[in-house]
């Protein structure tokens, strides 16, 4: 039989996706009704004989084939080294009206041998061969699947087929008239042109985005694009486009890429759900499965592909179950957010579609060609969907990084502003000390000289209280700047805590107000016993005077200060008789520049919001603390905890 020149319409035309889609829809609709080939099994029943050793001859199997029961399903037996013989006939009404073409699929079968002779005759058999390990001419027409020309035969044909393969053993045959085949081949070419055009675009998009964005998910999506090469092998494009070495190359690529694609799909599934961060154990399990599938690639050159597929099937089923459980858990934890559901659903659909293809290849379910088409398009849709969602996630992450950068910049500006503010307040407070000292000295001289008019004495008292108030404010500002310094240290010495409290109270005692001091709840003894503490007297005087000043300003009666020992520390409780502090302000009173609302309408104006903040910082610098111990009326109680002398701690 001569080798005919290829029909022009059967050459691949990788059309642009838009034109291909239009042609695809038109051709598929127009050829669906016109193309009605006779198919092996459903239209051409066959008998079957298994040849486990692969050494049986035609004469040995022919009697059993003629007496066997007919089969009408598509022939598929999974991964087995058994050779199979099939016998079927082409009745006269199929081939008597002219030349017909017999198409043989799939492209990954190792060896196919056809024996043909007229039906009812005893003449010699004509043998034709195909398969991706056969080095001779494959088919009579240049097409990506073997096409054998059958001349018109009034008696019909008797045909035998021997099939053997290291891949899945199945056989699809279609008997075409040339008038039916050409438009069907054109529609098929348009279909795969659209597919590979879309596949190329999705692969390039994923690759460019992976390089630019550096996302592991996008690299996984780029890796899964090797599945398109597997599709090209299954559809016979590799052997057709590289005729010299294509069939042998296609033979090995089909096995290698089948194993690799499942591993890459598991990698993409893990990255899509971010299992590395969210479920580390599931990620490690899927990556271990990927590693095992990579090792199984060695089975192809070692001629152990069937055994590798069985191991691969078990691994894929177990890891697929883990992925389904991980999807459910993460969706539930994310409250079924659309982006999370789509990122998990996309590889899940692709995984399920590939499982149906795998099950049909191993012979667990009947073979249907539509399963492979669904899987191949699920691969493209999966890539586009995951790529789009990955870009969306990267964009959201980029916006969050921008917001974080802006927030960091705003915090830096705020930190710098606060530093400048403290520097300015410290500078102003320091400059105030000299004129305030001059005023205090002048006021003291005026008091020594005496006042002829009693009204002058009242004015001297007001000037003194105002001066003391300004001194207290400047001390707070200076203490605030000192407390923020990195090299803050307190100058501790032995002091009497009772005398320190009296000195602090004398700085803030206004006219018309008294305060009460108790020790362990009782009035101090006469003479008073010393209360030794280990403090920085200048700093603690500021801290105590700030709290006593608040008690005077915001209370209606006389403040009460009680000193007691509790365990290994002194406790100084300062209570006022005001209405207390509102609940929504309690957490704010110790913050810098935050003040409680004045309790009394006629009370004095509050300060700048440094008093309690500075007092707490000073107490903590000594290893103690200042807390709001009681905020239930009447009044509130601030409680200092201060250290004893080191030698008194163990007493």
TrEMBL record:
Molecular-function GO term, any one: phosphorelay sensor kinase activity
Keyword Transmembrane found: yes
Pfam families with a match to the protein in the record: 7TMR-DISM_7TM (PF07695), 7TMR-DISMED2 (PF07696), HATPase_c (PF02518), HisKA (PF00512)
Catalysis performed (reactions): ATP + protein L-histidine = ADP + protein N-phospho-L-histidine
Record's keyword annotation contains Transmembrane helix: yes
Keywords assigned: Kinase, Membrane, Phosphoprotein, Transferase, Transmembrane, Transmembrane helix, Two-component regulatory system
Transmembrane segments: 190-210, 217-240, 252-269, 281-302, 314-332, 341-365, 371-392
PANTHER family, sorted: HISTIDINE KINASE 1, TWO-COMPONENT HISTIDINE KINASE
Protein name as catalogued: histidine kinase
């Amino acid at each position: 039989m001569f080798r005919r020149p290829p029909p022009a319409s059967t050459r691949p035309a990788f059309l642009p996706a838009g034109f291909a889609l239009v042609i695809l829809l038109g051709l598929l609709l127009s050829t669906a009704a016109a193309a009605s080939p006779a198919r092996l099994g459903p239209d051409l029943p066959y008998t079957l004989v298994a040849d486990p050793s692969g050494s049986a001859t035609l004469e040995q199997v022919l009697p059993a084939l003629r007496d066997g029961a007919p089969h009408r399903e598509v022939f598929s037996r999974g991964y087995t080294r058994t050779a199979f013989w099939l016998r079927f006939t082409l009745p006269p009404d199929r081939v008597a009206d002219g030349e017909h073409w017999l198409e043989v699929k799939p492209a990954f079968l190792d060896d196919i041998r056809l024996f043909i002779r007229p039906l009812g005759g005893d003449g010699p058999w004509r043998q034709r061969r195909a398969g991706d390990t056969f080095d001779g001419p494959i088919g009579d027409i240049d097409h990506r699947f073997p096409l054998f020309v059958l001349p018109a035969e009034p008696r019909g044909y008797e045909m035998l087929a021997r099939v053997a393969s290291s891949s899945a053993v199945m056989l699809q045959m279609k008997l075409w008239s040339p008038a039916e085949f050409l438009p069907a081949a054109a529609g098929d070419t348009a279909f795969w042109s659209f597919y590979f055009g879309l596949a190329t675009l999705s692969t390039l998009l994923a690759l460019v985005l992976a390089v630019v964005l550096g996302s592991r998910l996008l690299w996984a999506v780029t890796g899964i694009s090797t599945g398109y090469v597997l599709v090209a092998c299954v559809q016979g494009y590799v052997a057709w486009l590289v005729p010299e070495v294509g069939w042998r190359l296609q033979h090995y690529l089909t096995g290698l890429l089948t194993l690799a694609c499942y591993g890459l799909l598991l990698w993409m599934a893990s990255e899509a759900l971010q299992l590395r961060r969210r479920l580390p154990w599931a990620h490690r399990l899927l990556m271990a499965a990927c590693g095992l599938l990579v090792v199984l690639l060695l089975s192809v050159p070692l001629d152990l592909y069937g055994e590798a597929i069985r191991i691969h099937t078990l691994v894929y089923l177990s890891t697929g179950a883990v992925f389904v459980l991980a999807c459910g858990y993460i969706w539930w934890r994310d409250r079924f957010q659309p982006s999370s559901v789509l990122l998990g659903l996309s590889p899940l659909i692709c995984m399920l579609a590939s499982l149906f293809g795998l099950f049909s290849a191993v012979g667990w379910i009947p073979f249907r060609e539509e399963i492979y088409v669904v899987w191949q398009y699920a691969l493209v849709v999966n890539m586009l969907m995951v790529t789009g969602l990955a870009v969306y996630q990267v964009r959201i992450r980029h916006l969050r990084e921008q917001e974080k950068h802006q927030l960091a910049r705003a915090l830096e500006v705020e930190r710098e502003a606060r530093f400048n503010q403290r520097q300015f307040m410290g500078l102003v407070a320091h400059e105030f000390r000299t004129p305030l000292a001059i005023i205090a000295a002048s006021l003291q001289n005026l008091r020594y000289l005496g006042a002829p008019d009693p009204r002058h004495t009242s004015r001297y008292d007001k000037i003194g209280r105002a001066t003391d108030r300004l001194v207290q404010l400047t001390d707070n500002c200076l203490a605030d700047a000192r407390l923020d310094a990195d090299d803050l240290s307190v100058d501790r010495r032995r002091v009497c805590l009772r005398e320190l409290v009296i000195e602090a109270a004398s700085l803030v005692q206004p006219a018309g107000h008294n305060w009460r001091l108790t020790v362990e709840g009782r009035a101090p003894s006469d003479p008073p016993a010393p209360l030794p503490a280990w403090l920085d007297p200048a700093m603690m005087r500021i801290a105590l005077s700030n709290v006593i000043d608040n008690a005077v300003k915001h209370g209606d009666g006389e403040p009460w200060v009680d000193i007691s020992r509790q365990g290994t520390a002194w406790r100084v409780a300062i209570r006022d008789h005001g209405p207390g502090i509102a609940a929504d302000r309690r957490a704010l009173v110790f913050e810098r520049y935050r003040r409680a609302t004045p309790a009394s309408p006629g009370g004095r104006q509050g300060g700048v919001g440094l008093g309690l903040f500075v007092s707490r910082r000073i107490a903590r610098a000594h290893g103690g603390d200042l807390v709001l111990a009681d905020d239930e009326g009447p009044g509130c109680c601030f409680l200092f905890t201060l250290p004893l002398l080191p030698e008194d701690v163990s007493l």
